[in-house]
Amino acid sequence: MDTQFIRDRISQLRIQKGVSEYQMSYDLGHSRSYIYNISSGKSLPPMAEFLQICDYFGITPSQFFDDSSENPALLQTAIEELRKLNDDDLMLIIGNIRRLNKD
């Protein structure tokens, strides 16, 4: 991982969320150029800000760095919903997922 990955990942997730750099900066409580400065390579967020950025996207830091998932926020939502199910329902869902993956 390098700093370019962090910049690119923030841009990718921001675009998926459908917000501008300005809007994201504003939503995070910063000046309008905050996200632009990160995306352009002028700065990187400190750890506390990085955690806020992950929270803004609705993902964990682990999901941020896992570039194998195109839409980590959607995956996180699915995981949260699955946690609410009982074992029988989970087994049913797993069976459906396995069936879908065979096609």
Short description:
The protein has 103 residues and is mainly alpha-helical. The chain has seven helices and no strands. It is elongated and about 50 Å long.
Secondary structure: helix percent? 55-70%
Instruction: Provide a count of the helices.
Output: 7
Number of domains: 1
Q: Would you identify the CATH architecture?
A: Orthogonal Bundle
Radius of gyration: 17 Å
Major sheet attributes: none
How would you describe what is shown here?
This protein has 103 residues and is mainly alpha-helical. The protein has one domain (3-102): 434 Repressor (Amino-terminal Domain), CATH 1.10.260. It is 69% helix and 0% strand.
Q: Could you outline the blueprint of secondary structure elements for this entry?
A:
Elements: H1 3-17, H2 21-27, H3 34-39, H4 47-57, H5 61-65, H6 72-82, H7 87-102
Write out key terms for the chains shown.
103 residues; mainly alpha; 434 Repressor (Amino-terminal Domain); 7 helices; 0% strand; elongated
